[in-house]
Amino acid sequence: MHPLEPDEPTAVGPYRLLGRLGSGGMGRVYLGRSAGGRTVAVKVVHPHFAQDEGFRARFRREVEAARRVGGAWTAPVLDADPGAPVPWVATGYAAGPSLTDAVRDGGPLPEHSTRVLVAGLAEALAQVHGLDLVHRDVKPSNVLLTLDGPCLIDFGIARATDGTATRTALTSTGVSLGSPGYMAPEQILGNGVDGAADVFSLGAVLVFAATGRAPFPGDSTAALLYKVVHEQPELGGLSGDLRDLAAACLHKDPAARPAPADVSRRLAPGGAAALVTAGWLPGPLVERVSRSAVRLLNLDAAGAPAAGPPPGDPVPASGPVPFTGPAVGVFGPPDASYGAPPAVSYVVAPAVTDGGATGTGGGPEDSPRPGKLSLSVAAAAAPAGSDGRGRKVSCTVVLAVAGALAAVTVGTVFVFAMLPEDGDDTKDSAGRTPSATGDARTPAGGAVPVRYLGEWRGKASTQNGLVPLGTFDVTVQQASGPGRRIGTVTQTDLIGNKCVDVLTLKSASAKELVARGVGARTNDGQCSQTPHTMRLRPVGAELQYTSVDPKAGDPEARLRKVG
């Protein structure tokens, strides 16, 4: 957990904030405490999203969908205000690390722990699917390991299966459909998605928990998506019924996968709760949770108490529902299309004098440094713009581990700053910009025919168009000769993740431009950094893009000029 920075709020609604847990593509996550002493996770959306009416409607719908979910193995929403100038939601804080962190720090879980984990998650999914909802993003970072059992979080993208949630809404800015390597084949291909997709993801989580490795490893999003659709899972050292169950859940045919209730019965015939009561976590994890809870007891909030209702836990504004925040990432400045952010009116933290935590960002050569996020927006500001367990096993705990909710969905967006090397190679010796006419002409002092210069965009795919890879944006600029940087390729995959390749000229003629591509240093870990050869060939007014990159499936795209 990080201390609050000077421009961050000390209170949101009736909750005093103790620190910042993490940040995501749509907001920041804070550790908070109610007037009655309950510890909660408060998620506040980025101010510029509050001006997007489409986002607000989506946020409200997702809260309503999440309201229908409750019970064991999920974290409840305690309070929410989708209509606030800056929408926020407060959830019960679960005491435990994410499965991602637990495996990273301590290795695979013991077999008994894996059985309890998957049985509990299957019970949760059975309840969710019974309400005609689909989680859509079951993965290790959305699973918390608590003393009371596993806890499935991030229902913020659960969608009704009644046809009211359109693909357009799901693919809007900042909304993630799933995570590479854990998405079902039908989800990747854009086909109809039902509860069977969650079962596929559950099988992948089983493999990760038991072996420490994902069943579909790869060093790029494209490679992961290709493997999920076309290749068999790598089950590592799994054996016996766990191996059989994982293989069944990971079947390419949705109809061949078991139902969640069948999964839970196979692993815990008497129910997961009985196994949890007998103890389910290994000693090191139990100690980790306990130490974190003790540390939390000593936390206090700085600044004035929050304004809000009288002492006592607040009456939930949206009813008990599981709902958590979106993807983990690093905030950058708001997109200019949203206009200026609204005026601020949250309580702002006093100046920090001990050098509190700062944000992280990419290197200056490949990406602009992310700007600070201000969450102090005026309450009077109106949204603008046209376009938010007898013993039932519960993972709602008053005390919590400080970093549990910092690991949510991955999907950081990087923007690459295009700068020519050693001066501006886009001008000739007289300082004039080359003409854009004459496709085959190469301007004086330049090595790239004008035909290729500019900004190009197109849909990419692999396997002769059978596997969509998202959108490729290619920028080509002038260069003085081979070995010089000529531009970038920005790959935006089906779930909104972006990877940037830097292009260095190898050769150029009227018939073909050949460049060496390599991943930018700012790229996230899911992006391939393997050097590869990219080719552009004129086809009428368009360009045919091909790439010799087997790990990414040798992608192709037909590009049209957009700038």
From TrEMBL:
**By its UniProt entry, which CDD domains does this protein fall under?**
STKc_PknB_like
Recorded hits in SUPFAM superfamilies, A to Z, give:
Protein kinase-like (PK-like)
Disordered as annotated region, ranges: 423-446, 544-563
Q: Which GO terms describe its molecular function?
A: ATP binding; protein serine/threonine kinase activity
Residues where ATP binds:
43
Q: Where are the transmembrane segments?
A: 397-419
Pfam families hit by this protein: Pkinase (PF00069)
According to the lineage, what is the superkingdom? Bacteria
Specify the Protein kinase domain's residue ranges: 15-281
Q: Which UniProt keywords apply?
A: ATP-binding, Kinase, Membrane, Nucleotide-binding, Transferase, Transmembrane, Transmembrane helix
Composition-biased stretches, type Basic and acidic residues, lie in 551-563
List the InterPro entries: Kinase-like_dom_sf, Prot_kinase_dom, Protein_kinase_ATP_BS, Ser/Thr_kinase_AS
The protein's name: Protein kinase
